[in-house]
Amino acid sequence: MSSFYDLTFDELRDMLAGRGQPGYRAQQLYEWAYKRLAGDYRDMTVLPAALRASLANELPLDVLTPVREIETDDGDTVKVLYRTADGQTIETVLMYYADRATVCVSCQVGCAVGCSFCATGMGGLQRNLTTGEMVAQVIDMARRARRRGRPLTNIVMMGMGEPFHNYAAVMKMVAILHDARGMQVGARRITLSTSGVVPFIDRLASEPFQVNLAISIHAADDALRSELVPLNRRWPLDELLGAVRRYIRQTGRRVSFEYALIADVNDRDDDAWNLARRLRGLLCHVNLIPLNPTPAAPYQRPSADRIARFERILVEAGIPTTVRYSRGVEIAAACGQLRAQHAPVTAQPPLMGENHG
After folding, report:
1. Is 31 a catalytic residue?
2. What number of other Cβ atoms are within 10 A of residue 277's Cβ?
3. Annotated catalytic, 91?
4. Domains in the chain, start-ordered, CATH in brackets?
5. 81 vs 59: CA distance, rounded Å
6. What distance in Å separates the CA atoms of residue 323 and residue 341, rounded to the nearest whole number?
7. Which pLDDT tens digit goes with each residue over 125-145?
8. Single pTM value for the model
């Protein structure tokens, strides 16, 4: 069943027109759903009661059910486990900063990429999320932020799943949330993250929305990256970085590279120098993310000294770099961890050197 959040403004207007409703009804609904963040049609008192009843039956607003919620002691990171209508579970994280409130959205139930350090990929892929299920995550977190007196300002597609494996639904989500008649989230406040699906990097460069692009790179040589990110066997680093160069030339926008630092795996001086050589000359920024360990994988976070040295090598090589510690380590806020706790994944942890794609 479709939900209200699956429809663009034009789709909603056309559907209502087919039922004999005046054109302004679509604007009223978008106002209540995306600006007032109403969670029930009964609250939309400007609408006729009969229309509210039919919409509640045919286009529900409550497509996700929270089943577990945890937050850090300071309350600055909140993670919610939702159940979908077909009984799947997904995660969403809300993070408060001094100048912004960011929601980290999931786009799939599980993930097919199979990154060896990621709890999500260990359970495999069950299905793509619908546009409505993604939008619903944002709306629910916007309500939570509003109750705290904060506006939701940023959206990052860095939750469960590979956004470019669900590209059409993700881009429709961007269109809905960007619409000035609704939530009006600026495209530059939306970040899409990919593990390196090259054809869709090229496609994104031609989209009308100036969203941010983040690349999960995690290694600077193909052998190691193929172990950590099996997708690299399909699109190795030369192809990936070629697509990034085309993207930058076409859009003029800076690309972020996400690099999960893993002790004794990809945190050596040579790894840092190799990364610097790969990225030299690109309009880019590197986010070093010390690993948020998961019990299902054998990897650990590097020491503070090792993290600082890796950062220093990149900076001295002229690569803009920031260390970003994962938020909510104590509440299993890394991708897939809370879901794994709710329904534990029973899988042998991958070993370096084995083919574990």
Report:
1. no
2. 11
3. yes
4. 4-58 (1.10.150.530), 65-342 (3.20.20.70)
5. 23
6. 27
7. 999 999 999 999 999 999 999
8. 0.90
Of 237, 245, 162, the closest CA to residue 202 belongs to: 245
Which is catalytic among the residues 91, 133, 162, 311? 91
Q: Is the pLDDT of residue 39 over 50?
A: yes
Catalytic residue among 107, 115, 284, 335: 335
